[in-house]
Write a structure and sequence with these properties.
The chain is of the alpha+beta class. Helix content is about 35%, strand content about 35%. The model has no long low-confidence stretch (mean pLDDT about 95). InterPro entries: DUF503 (IPR007546), TT1725-like_sf (IPR036746).
Length: about 90
């Protein structure tokens, strides 16, 4: 089973693309180190404070894949510099 999430977020403290990318690099690497998922910025690459992350996991068990995505979303919420504004979860 494949479960994906598109996460819109705001990085209010970023005053440049360089600062935004530093925050995103840290968030992405922590997610990848903690969970067995793929994560990438999929939209708004040239906007200072806005981003959209794509997160995907694959598992033999739908329930396990769904739980993994939910854990990742909860983990994202633990970053004070990243505010999750909208999330779309898709099951394939």
């Amino acid at each position: 089973m494949i479960v994906s999430a598109e996460v819109d977020g705001m990085i209010y403290g970023a005053q440049s693309l360089k600062e935004k990318r530093a925050v995103l690099r840290r968030v992405q690497s922590r997610i990848q180190n903690e969970f067995n998922v793929s994560v990438s910025e999929i939209e708004f690459q040239d906007v200072w404070q806005r981003t959209r992350l794509g997160i995907v996991t694959i598992s033999y068990d739908y329930k396990k894949a769904e739980q993994t995505i939910q854990k990742v979303l909860h983990f994202i919420d633990s970053f004070p510099e990243f505010e999750r504004t909208d999330t779309v979860v898709e099951r394939l």
